[in-house]
Amino acid sequence: MSCLADVNIHNAMKAVSQALSLDDGSRRHDAYVHYLQCVQYIVQMLLKDAQIPGTKVLYEIICNIFYSNICMRNSKHSMKKKLLVQQ
Q1: In whole angstroms, what is the distance from residue 9 CA to residue 14 CA?
Q2: pLDDT at site 87
Q3: In angstroms, how far apart are the furthest CA atoms of the chain?
Q4: Which of 14, 71, 75, 84 is the most exposed place for a label (fewest CB within 10 A)?
Q5: Residues 26-81 pLDDT 10s
Q6: How far apart, in Å, do the first and last CA atoms of the chain sit?
């Protein structure tokens, strides 16, 4: 595990935590935007790793996929809540 991988996974965890805090605070739109930013950040990291020949599946990659799934699921729920409030 490289130092860069440590920093990236730490940043992803921190960003997801911030999005969850926004969602808990009923700031649904802000949470939605933050979830999508998290997904974008994580996907960029995964793409960068995938473009390196011989990249092995590491624990950090699995964790990043897990975090991006959390963000996608929660962004969907945030938008559903927002739609219900608008109706």
Answers
A1: 9
A2: 65
A3: 51
A4: 84
A5: 788 888 888 888 888 888 888 888 888 887 777 778 888 888 888 888 888 887 87
A6: 49
Per-residue pLDDT tens digits for 1-39: 444 555 577 888 888 888 888 888 778 888 888 888 888
Contacts of 41 by beta carbon, 8 Å cutoff, 6+ apart: 11, 12, 15
**Is residue 59 within 8 Å of 24, Cβ to Cβ?**
no
Question: Of the candidates 16, 3, 20, which has an alpha carbon nearest to the alpha carbon of residue 63?
Answer: 16
Cα distances (angstroms) measured from residue 42 to each of 22, 26, 66, 74, 87: 19, 24, 10, 15, 33
Domains of the chain from N-terminus onward: 3-86 (1.20.58.80)
